[in-house]
Amino acid sequence: MAQSNGTTNPDRKLKILMLHGFTQTGPLFEIKTKALKKSLEKSFPAAPKPGYLRNYPGGVELHYPTAPIRLDVADIPGYDVDGNADKADAPEAYGWWRRKGDAEPFVYAGMEMGLATIAETLQQEGPFDGVLGFSQGGAAAGMVAALLEEGRREAFEAAQGRGGMRYPDSFTRDSGFIEETIHPPLEFAVSYSGFGASTNALYHAFYEPKIRTPMLHFLGSVDTVVSEERSLRLVDACVEGRGKNGGVQRVVYHPGGHFLPSSQKQYVAALVGFIREAVGESGGYLETSIEAP
Q1: Among 196, 188, 172, which residue's Cα sits nearest to residue 112?
Q2: How far apart are CA 143 and CA 78, in angstroms?
Q3: Alpha helices, DSSP H only, in the chain?
Q4: At the top level of its lineage, which domain of life is listed (predicted)?
Q5: CA-CA distance, 270 to 247, in Å (whole number)?
Q6: Most buried in the list 20, 38, 120, 270, measured by CB within 10 Å?
Q7: Can you tell me whether residue 218 is helix, strand or coil?
Q8: 260 and 36 Cβ atoms separated by less than 8 Å
Q9: Considering Cα of 59, then 263, then 95, then 87, what sign does the dihedral take?
Q10: Where do the DSSP E strands lie in the chain?
């Protein structure tokens, strides 16, 4: 998507789709990532400030949609432990899907609705250059990156014969001759405490073939909500490599739990360096990344 021939629109911004976690909302996620947003705006300013991206001279712009599935108090972990919570006082909580089942292989009820909301945002507020998500939103970020890749629809069609779901209708449009994807492939994806989808055959086509979009994964070393095994399932579903078209994939561990480290400089530097590398303007910044111990 980036242009490097000197004809870039002077107002063009680096647009990032921000996907909140389970039980959150778009506005709440924006509040929780306020420090990160400021850091990105400082790192990717509008031209001619130092550090601006040549292909995105307008700076950076973040969009925070809210998932469509309103959750009940029973869906909110730790909220109604004794069954006596007042539903009228329940916080607004939303999800991109509901997980069904007590053990793998899980089924993700309502996923089509969640993906349809994301697809609508891509069409109405895009085009986007990248996607960043936390927890369930991190899992969704990997799925969205996969869905927009060339050849992914054919992978879904092939997987249907093995029990896979069909390619989401919300991600296709009729151009008059053939159906095409609603949005170009993304330049990058970022997952904080995300995870690979259920081992259910329904979802294999998201990851087979592996995700080629450059993806960065942040994992909390003491995360008790999403296990390292589930997070590494998403890592393993991504192509390894370096370079703008090489499927840049990085894993960064932080010494915390299930949260997004938005104010610690070393983790922000890792994110900034990754984005620069992914859009082809690294300048060596990626060396600030923190590898797994």
Answers
A1: 172
A2: 28
A3: 26-32, 34-43, 111-125, 136-147, 152-160, 228-236, 265-278
A4: Eukaryota
A5: 16
A6: 20
A7: strand
A8: yes
A9: negative
A10: 14-19, 60-63, 69-70, 94-95, 98-100, 107-109, 130-134, 172-174, 179-181, 188-192, 215-220, 249-254
240-274 burial: b if 16+ Cβ within 10 Å, else e:
eeeebeebbbbbbbbebeebbbbeeeebbbbbbbb
Average pLDDT, whole number, for the chain? 86
Please give the DSSP secondary-structure letter assigned to residue 128.
Answer: -
Which residue type, as a one-letter code, is found at position 122? L
* 105: preceding bond cis by omega (within 30 degrees): yes
Q: Does pLDDT of 6 surpass 80?
A: no
Q: Work out the angle at residue 216's Cα, subtended by the Cα atoms of residues 160 and 258, and round it to the nearest 5 degrees.
A: 95
Q: Is the peptide bond before 209 cis (omega within 30 degrees of 0)?
A: yes
Three-state secondary structure call for residue 94: strand
Residue 104 is predicted with a pLDDT of 84
Cα–Cα dist 94/84, whole Å: 21
Segment 169-190, tens digit of pLDDT: 999 987 555 678 999 999 999 9
CB-based burial of residue 35 (10 Å sphere; 0-12 exposed, 13-18 middle, 19+ buried)? middle
- Strand-pairing partners, residue 107, are 100
Nearest CA to 96 among 201, 182, 168, 14? Answer: 168
Which positions are annotated as active-site residues?
Answer: 135, 223, 258
- How far is 5 from 16, CA to CA, in rounded Å? 23
Tell me the three state secondary structure of residue 160.
helix
- pLDDT digits over 262-278, tens only? 878 899 999 999 999 99
- Degrees, nearest 5: CA angle 251-252-257: 120
Please state the length of the chain: 293
